Amino acid sequence: MLVASNRGPVSYEVREDGSLHSKRGGGGVVSGLSAIGPDAGALWVCSALSDGDREAVRRGVGEDGVLMLDIPAGVHADAYNGIANSVLWFVHHMLYQTPLEPVFDAEFRRQWASYETYNRAFAEALAGRAAPGAAVLVQDYHLTLVPGMLRELRPDLRIGHFSHTPWAPPEYFRMLPDDIAGQVLRGMLGADRLGFLTRRWADAFEACCDRFAGGLGDTRVGVHGLGADADFLRARSHQPDVAERMAALRDEIGTAADGSARRTIVRVDRTELSKNIVRGLLAYRQLLDDHPEWRDRVVHVAFAYPSRQDLAVYRDYTAEVQRLAEEINSGYGTPTWTPVVLHVKDDFARSLAAYRLADVALVNPIRDGMNLVAKEVPVVSDEGCVLVLSREAGAFEELGEDALAVNPYDVIGTAQALHEALSMGPEDRAERSKRLAASATALPPTQWFLEQLSALEEGRASEPD
Ligand SMILES: O=P(O)(O)OC[C@H]1O[C@H](O[C@H]2O[C@H](CO)[C@@H](O)[C@H](O)[C@H]2O)[C@H](O)[C@@H](O)[C@@H]1O
User: Fold this and answer.
1) 3-state helix, strand, coil in the chain (%, to 5)
2) Residue ranges per domain, the chain?
3) What's the CATH fold of domain 2-226+445-458?
4) Domain covering 230-440: architecture
5) How would residue 99 be classed by pLDDT, with cut points 50, 70 and 90?
6) Which residue of 119, 166, 397, 460 has the smallest Cβ count within 10 Å?
């Protein structure tokens, strides 16, 4: 079995003394694939992303079962920043809007050629390593061309592809130049089986194939809603470093003037446009305007971790989040109350500490493949939390019944949902949280992975799922 993804399970940094330090790779895909431990006998093919990763490849340092491809930095930058994160991510999350509409010019074509080169490097590495008839599971929008390329090189393989993002509806997908759209769909259809996080994204893909590629052909499509890893999260969130972070966070949150504990509205995201952090802050400000009774009694704990900072649009978004948080704090704060506690430095232990302290979790993306935070907070929160959840998150399909649904564009509606969540009685809140945790853990990562693998094993020409 082979797995291929842009981001791998491990990344390296070069320390001042020249030694290499390894740490776990970030992001939801790596969490999902964590089921593939070193004992699984799988080979995980990924890309060298940092200078440290490239140095590790050069020195021949690596982990068993991991093959890091040292793709030239320029090619990777074009493929990852230029095409994957600036074009395909924007199309599937429907993020293009004036004046950010795409310009598919000569520069785009040059970057697309790098995207092809990047995909070919993966296809060739996989083709060179796979045993006859092996199963290959390719991940995400960075590698849409790999299934088709690999099929040509190695028709004997069983090839799966899994999308961790939404898929754009045909009316939006058609924004891509026709030949590029065709290449993406044909690339994906090189797989025996394609997986999506929700039925909605799978349906959108099928609709695009019907409109632009003459249907699915022999490729089968299935849905696997990646769940939270309850055992890991519960054990990890009770480690001493998390307890330390909880104490520090409690100090930052403080207590209300009447001595009561302040309520918390928690959010944890990569600072990513689709996560809708700015409208989340606007909704919180609206809550303080519409319901001044919450002033001094609530704190918005917002962790917005840096993401894709090579792209100006992400850097600008990060700056906007920071500016708005400061504006709320200076406009509403008092010497003893900081309305927004914002942290921008990635710290997993601190995220878990915030999950444990959460009374309300705010997850309001414009559009999201799944959103694992929505699934993780109810599992970890000590007292049970109310989930305010965007109806556009993939997680909504599974959690919608027990969450408070919001339209992510509606700031006033989101403020009302926050008020409702903060006002909910402890029993109701605990009951909902328990039901949310049960739904969120229905398909833990190991089962999610094995489910895809066995569906792929079922063969190429069997019934559609
Ligand atoms: O690798 P990056 O560019 O730093 O981005 C991190 C990951 O972002 C996306 O994650 C998605 O996958 C999650 C798991 O299925 C899902 O819960 C979440 O809603 C998605 O946004 C992206 O799809 C990954 O490839 C990136 O590694």
Assistant:
1) 50, 15, 35
2) 2-226+445-458, 230-440
3) Rossmann fold (3.40.50)
4) 3-Layer(aba) Sandwich (3.40)
5) low
6) 460
Say how many Å lie between the CA of residue 90 and the centre of ligand 1: 13
Supply the residue whose CA is at minimum distance from atom 10 of ligand 1: 28
Token pair, residue 437, equals 């945790």
Q: How far is CA 164 from CA 93, 392, 455, in A?
A: 11, 14, 17
Whether 395 is in the pocket of ligand 1, judged by its Cβ within 6 Å, is no
pLDDT tens sequence across 376-418: 999 999 999 999 999 999 999 999 999 999 999 999 999 999 9
Torsion of CA 148, 149, 154, 159, to 10 degrees: -40
Give yes or no for residue 76 CB within 6 A of ligand 1.
no
Site to probe by mutation for ligand 1, drawn from 86, 95, 164 as the one with most ligand atoms within 8 Å of Cβ, is: 164
CB neighbour class for 366 (10 Å; exposed up to 12, middle 13-18, buried from 19): middle
> ipTM of this predicted complex?
0.94
For 360, 406, 413, the CA distances from 410, given in Å and listed in that order, are 18, 7, 5
Q: What are residue 108's DSSP bridge partners? A: none
Judge if pTM exceeds 0.90: yes
Give phi and psi for 204, each to the nearest 5: -65, -40
